[in-house]
Amino acid sequence: MSTNARNMMRWNRMDQWLLFSAILLLHNFLFLSQTLAETTTSVHHKILSSLLGSKEAAKNSILYSYRHGFSGFAARLTKSQAEEVAKFPGVVSVFPNRIHKLHTTRSWDFIGMHHSSSNTASNESNLGEGTIIGVIDTGIWPESASFNDEAMGQIPSRWKGVCEEGEQFSSKNCNKKIIGARWFLKGVSHDAKKLIHGNESIEYLSARDAIGHGTHTASTAAGYFVGNADYKGLASGIARGGAPLAHLAIYKACWDISVGGCSGADILKAFDKAIHDGVDILTVSLGLNIPLFSYVDQRDTIAIGSFHATAKGITVICSAGNSGPSSLTVSNTAPWIITVAATTIDRAFPTAIVLGNNLTLWGESLDVGKHHSIGFVELTYSERVALDPEDDSAKDCQSGSLNATMAAGKIVLCFSLSEEQDIVSASLAVREAGGVGLIFAQSHEDGLNQCESFPCVKVDYEVGTQIVSYIRRARFPTASLRAPKTVIGKLTSPRVATFSSRGPSTMSPSVLKPDIAAPGVDILAAFTPKGTTKNSGFQFLSGTSMSCPHVAGIASLIKSKHPTWSPAAIRSAMVTTASQNGNDGSFISEEGSTLKEADPFDIGGGHVNPIKAMDPGLIYDITNKDYIQFLCSMGYSSSSIRKLSKTTRSCEKEKYQGLNLNLPSISVPNLKKAAKVIRTVTNVGNITAVYKALVRAPYGIEVRVEPQILSFNSDTTVISFSVRFHSTQKVHHGDYRFGSLTWTDGNHSVRTPIVVRTIKFES
């Protein structure tokens, strides 16, 4: 989901800033101070009082005080006031508020978790019991059956959160499943409440979800078992989240109002409260578009908030973005974040189109209203019913482009010509013109949209061209649209979703992004009922927003089984055990301009395998100090790193090699001739184990691992090894090459993806 361009322009013109003072954050400016003791709200008010001239003015200006994991405040200031306060002693950073975008049930069975209830779970899985998943999103619809707490255990004693009341949301809406709910609106607009109540908005001034996105992601991560879940009869079965017995903590920071969706100030306050409350996992299905800010730039509040959450042992999972299939589009690339790509599952909704000559062609649809199945009626091509034959806008059925007299009572075939027009918009145009159905031909794009009970079928250009040919040949072309069906297990999958953002990272190509891939296409999960009792309460959505909570649910399962593991260890377990093969045994593919084998820039370590991730054998761990030294290796100053990390730690004299950050992947983006990379693994499997190295070298690259055998026992649980790379090519094109290093003891296979780009030209 995204805010439209016009609203974003309106937002950008508003004078809004964030301030940090040790991370002191103001609505329109963020201040960072190195005096860590000055973290109280009174200190924040004192700074503003000095700036604005009175305590009353300070009280009216301040939006949030940040005190947990970092110190700062957000306030509403003019540009000149922000410039003035930046000169105050102890204020070392001031920056404007930013708006982030949302990155918008067969899937769990598809990835190997075959539980139909808590009673059928294996002994190896406790379904996330005892863990707390925080969801920073659009809120939650607490009445959904997915959030039933009947089988939930007691709320963990460490929990410090609250259930904030608000519009149509009381403390009774929280239970042992939804153990906390907060909402943050101050960063969006000073007049946000007026905007909500004055423009017939469906929003709620509370944690209640008006959009549905947050309800969907929360139930995907930790929804309880719901039998007979479906969307209008499609995909009927048992809906569930990845960790059905995990608790949920809701942080509503995204809003359906005209001035923007998710402000940086609100997001940062959500992180601040989540750290205080005691969550174990955070799922964040939103982000910024490229160009990205640096990791020490205070404008990227997701990077800031996640850094401090990770430092407190909280695993943060973020969506990779929906700007694929172009390369270099991945967002949320900080090395302490688990970044998730999206893939398809093996479920489809084929819809028959029967032509008047008895030829049956196939498309896909989710619209199964009582009027969907249409008997034979007249079929036409949009060009034939154009209001203006000279105007190409009728080809893809843009609003107002069709002649109502000519289109009335017909099924209309439209061809997509641009990204601006989609099947939903085209269906509105056909309906307005009196048409009774739509066939929409477009290039391949994963994910189906609903046309609100208006019969619409998506087809590819090949099928669309066959239909056009029939229309042109037939004297009285007719067609019948049949209702869609649910088909499972017939499609080769997973496949990387067309929309899923691709690597490499534009900010730090030595950090492989995305980290992992998970289901994100046509995912059925709980949804806001939109005021109708006829809605089943479940909806299909597609996006990396949907793949992100899949990984959050799995992270919760791992945390429940291994409560002492760090966020880096949890990521390592998933990345090193991920799959590279589809359900037919072939390599996972990705569909960009052509169909090809997916590489690490598409899927990171591979497609997540929750069963294997519970027992990875070895893990690659990372400390907060390691992340700080990595930032030093990127050339950031000690002062800017201290602003981010809220520590007095400086860059070490001995230069830290960024390639040596102990990630479960290896990326060498600028290999001139040779390079050496160091990694360290910790044995978390059998006490006594011997692992041997298996190398699949990238083309044209010689790879040598030392030592080639790792022997673990009760005294030796951590071992470092080196990987040396040497280019054997005389001519280098600057292309990335891919390979892998796998450590195996005969029982575990610990796979590290490798990407290398050579840059030197030789004669």
From TrEMBL:
InterPro entries associated with the record: Peptidase_S8/S53_dom (IPR000209), Peptidase_S8/S53_dom_sf (IPR036852), Peptidase_S8_Ser-AS (IPR023828), Peptidase_S8_subtilisin-rel (IPR015500), Peptidases_S8_3 (IPR034197), S8pro/Inhibitor_I9 (IPR010259), S8pro/Inhibitor_I9_sf (IPR037045), SBT (IPR045051)
Taxonomic superkingdom: Eukaryota
Pinpoint the Inhibitor I9 domain residues. 37-103
Catalytic center residues: 137 (charge relay system), 213 (charge relay system), 545 (charge relay system)
Query: What main location does UniProt list?
Result: secreted
Q: Where is the signal peptide?
A: 1-37
Pfam families per UniProt? fn3_6 (PF17766), Inhibitor_I9 (PF05922), Peptidase_S8 (PF00082)
Its localization reads: Secreted
Which residues does the UniProt record annotate as the domain Subtilisin-like protease fibronectin type-III? 660-756
Tell me where in this chain the Peptidase S8/S53 domain is found.
128-584
Task: Write the record's keywords in alphabetical order, separated by commas.
Answer: Hydrolase, Protease, Secreted, Serine protease, Signal
What family is this?
Answer: Belongs to the peptidase S8 family.
Looking up PANTHER family in the UniProt record yields: PROPROTEIN CONVERTASE SUBTILISIN/KEXIN
User: Mind telling me what this protein is named?
Assistant: Uncharacterized protein
* Organism of this sequence: Stylosanthes scabra
